[in-house]
Please model this.
Amino acid sequence: MGSPRSGTTFLAHMVNRFFDVHICRDNGTLLRFHRILSHYEPLTDDANLKRLISHLYADHYFQERLVARGLKLSQSEVFARVSRRTYGGLIEAIFGAIAAEHGKAVWGYKRASFARVTGRHIDDLFPNAKFVHIVRDARDVVLSMRTSTELLLERSWHFGALDWVSHVRTGQRIGRELGPSRFFELRYERFMADPVTVLEEILDFCGGGRDRDARMERIRNEIRGLVKSDNTEKWRKQVPADAIRVIERVAGPLLQELGYPVLNPDVSGRKVGPVELAWLHADRVVRNLVHTKFSVMLRYRLEVLKAHRRARARA
Model:
C-alpha cells in the first residue's frame, strides 16, 4: 500500500519473484464491491453469497485482473471454498486459489489507493493480514504522476501533492491502528539503495516462509540487476523550480516530518487563497482534458454503474 507512483507495483513484483507469496492486483474491484456490500448481506445466506460471486464474475475488471491472471475456479467452486461466511472469507478464497495456481502458499494484495481505507474496513477485508506501506519523496511521486501516460492520475503539481499527502497520512493512521506487529513502513529511497536488507526485513516481517535462507541467497544473487539504484531524486533535474515550490507548499510539512529536505521552507504549509485555488482548479481541468484517456475512465465508470445496478436488483 502507498501513494500511486511510490513503488508499490515494483515491490509487488519483487515479492512475487522471491517470496512464497503471490500478490494479486484487481484495479480496486474488491474494494469497490465492499462499498455496496449491504445489498448482499448477510453472506451466511447461501443465495446472497452466490449472488455476490455471480456479480463479481460479471465485472469486467474482475475478469481482466483476476480470472485472466490465475483464478481458474468456477463460481460454484469459489462458493465451496469460502470457509468463513464473511467478505474477508470470500477474498481469502479467491486470492488463496490464485496463489495456489501460481505455486505459492501465501497470498497478498496490492492496491496503491488502498491507503485510503479506514482501519475498521481493513479488518473487514483482511482480518489476519500484515501490511507494508511504502513512502516515496512527494516531488518524485508528483513528477511520475504528471508524466505517466497510461493511468488515471492527478496531473497538476498542486493536486498531485495533495493526493500524496492524503495517501501517506491515511497510511500512517492505519499503521497506528494496526500496530508494529501488522504494519511495516519503508522508504522507497532506502529500498533502491539497499534492496537486499529491505527485502530481508519484509520477508522476516511476513514470517519468513518456506526456505527462507535459500530465498535470501537468491535475492542477493539477482536483485542488483533488477533495481535502478539511481531512480531517486529525479525531481532535482526534471521539476522546474516554481513547480517545486508548489509541491512543497502543500507537501512540505509532511516531507520535513518524514526527514526529506525541502528547498523552500518559507512556503511550506502556506495556505492557498480562494482566487489562487480557483486558478489551480481550472488548470487541473485543462490538464485532465488534455492528458486523460477518457475511454479508460468511461469504461471504469460504466463498470461501477453496472455493479451498482446489479446489486440493487434483488433476485
About this structure: The mean pLDDT is 90. The chain has 16 helices and four strands.
